[in-house]
Write a structure and sequence with these properties.
Helices cover 43% and strands 17% of the residues. It is an alpha/beta fold and 104 residues long. The protein has one domain. A five-stranded mixed beta sheet has the order 2-1-4-3-5.
């Protein structure tokens, strides 16, 4: 599982035990994709949804979280196998494991 660190805005991999995190529920079309977050934070900042990511990170920090999960930013959708696993994991576990869902 990948999570976005709210301070560094870096995507980090977690295997096994997952830390406490919140989930961003956002509007379609305003995503900041995985490729932009992992390759070019400068490019990510140009996306329409970046302000939402930043405000959600601020809200998550105020609530005591260090990490958030955002599907577009944490899933490499260029890999069909990863995308399928992420969908299954999201339904089966990600939402259930989250401490909070932040709607922005």
């Amino acid at each position: 599982m990948r999570l976005l660190h709210i301070e560094t805005l870096q995507v980090e991999d977690f295997i096994g035990s997952v830390l406490k995190y919140a989930i961003l529920s956002h509007t379609c079309g305003k995503e900041v994709p995985f490729a932009d977050v992992t390759c070019s934070l400068k490019q990510a900042r140009k996306k329409a949804g970046f302000a939402t990511v930043k405000s959600t990170c601020k809200l998550a920090k105020e609530q005591g979280y260090d990490y958030i999960w955002i599907d577009a930013a944490c899933i490499d959708k260029s890999s069909s196998a990863e995308l399928l696993e992420a969908i299954i994991q999201c339904i089966a576990g990600t939402l259930n494991q989250a401490s909070a869902t932040l709607i922005s």
